[in-house]
Write a structure and sequence with these properties.
Layout lengths: L1 H25 L8 E5 L6 H17 L3 E5 L6 H8 L7 E6 H6 L16 E15 L8 H10 L5 E4 L5 H13 L4 E4 L3 H9 L5 E5 H10 L3 E5 L14 H5 L6 E8 L5 H15 L2 H9 L3 E2 L4 H22 L6
Parallel strand pairs: 1-2, 1-3, 5-6, 5-7
Antiparallel strand pairs: 3-9, 4-7, 4-8, 4-9, 4-10
Helix pairs in contact: 1-10, 2-10, 2-11, 6-12
Length: 328
């Protein structure tokens, strides 16, 4: 009987703690200490830079410091797992992106979490369109020219990426599938070395982020054919989208968002979502993101969850069609 009474008491305490957490959030007590936002990438890369930009805005809005913690390794799986198995108290967040969430899990790598079950989406935070660039020595001036040349020379053209399973690798595979062309993938240890190889004419083309490619496009060392997103970039308004330039059903962009551990209470999620949207509207944050060729985009938790599921299904299909299993 005594054991039963103790069990009941523990259950009541647990329920009270949960209610207190929710109540504390609703009446403004959350957050009352610094928040750790894990960036599953190395310092200085685009994920890290965008995460730090957002963290500054979040710190201002929430009144508590949001500290970026870089946890690189295993294509982003290590840092992401820390959040998937973390405490759902709102003090450990993930600055997630496509690689470890919707691409690498389909490549045959043992993933220590289920993307669709082991995270609580909070908000989409930013999108950054890829740009399709070619070496000027390649005799093409448009996407249609590139497709025609690739069909004339099957298996002869090649494209660089920052490594197997990266977003720019999968952008290249999506292009091959939608254009029905045979272009050889050449992975490098990062987008930087890949672009260096393109500048040296070691490869013919690549999808890359706009900021690193922009100086070379302006100098004429690279030729920009198109951007990969659904709309033109304000940084390069004269460069069409792949869909505009070719008629292909093509739309891919780098995306970044805030996620929490599973079972994070809804009041905490709501507080973080509202703070993310407000942070993205802070002028210094907007200006910093724009300089990086990134668009701040807030979304509801439901919209972000729907987008993740859509991206999951899209890349699962592309990876299967391209036969990329085991290439992470």
């Amino acid at each position: 009987m005594k054991l039963v009474q103790q069990a009941v008491a523990l259950a009541v305490l647990a329920a009270s703690a949960t209610m207190a957490t929710a109540q504390g959030t609703s009446d403004g007590n959350y957050p009352n200490r610094p928040i750790r936002m894990i960036a599953p990438s190395s310092a200085g890369g685009p994920v890290d830079v965008i995460a730090r930009t957002l963290s500054q805005g979040l710190s201002e809005v929430l009144g508590q410091q949001v500290v970026v913690d870089n946890r690189a390794g295993a294509a982003g799986l290590i840092g992401s797992e820390l959040v998937a198995t973390g405490s759902p108290d709102g003090y450990t967040l993930l600055f997630g992106f496509s690689g470890p969430l919707v691409i690498v899990p389909h490549l045959g790598t043992k993933t220590p979490y289920d993307t669709l079950k082991d995270f609580t989406p909070v908000s989409l935070a930013a999108q950054a369109p890829y740009i399709l660039v070619v070496n000027p020595n390649l005799p093409v001036n448009s996407v249609k020219d590139l497709i025609a040349l690739a069909k004339q020379r099957p298996g002869k053209l090649n494209y660089a990426s920052g490594g197997n399973g990266t977003g720019i690798h999968l952008a290249g595979e999506l292009f091959k599938l939608t254009a029905h062309v045979n272009i050889v993938h050449v992975p490098y240890k990062g987008a930087g070395p890949g672009q260096t190889a393109l500048l040296a004419n070691e490869v013919d083309m690549m999808f890359n982020g706009i900021p690193p490619a922009l100086p070379h496009v302006k100098s004429g060392k690279l030729k920009a054919l198109a951007v990969g997103g659904a709309k033109r970039s304000p940084i390069l308004p004269d460069v069409p989208t792949v869909a505009e330039a070719s008629g292909l059903d093509f739309n891919t962009t780098g995306w970044y968002g805030v996620l929490a551990p599973p079972k994070t209470p809804r009041p905490i999620v709501n507080r973080l979502h509202a703070a993310t949207v407000k942070a993205l509207a802070v002028p210094s944050v907007k200006e910093s993101l724009a300089r990086q060729g990134v668009e701040g985009v807030g979304s509801s938790p439901e919209e972000f969850a729907k987008m993740i599921r859509s991206e999951w299904m899209k890349w699962e299909k592309v990876i299967k069609a391209a036969g990329l299993k085991g290439q992470a």
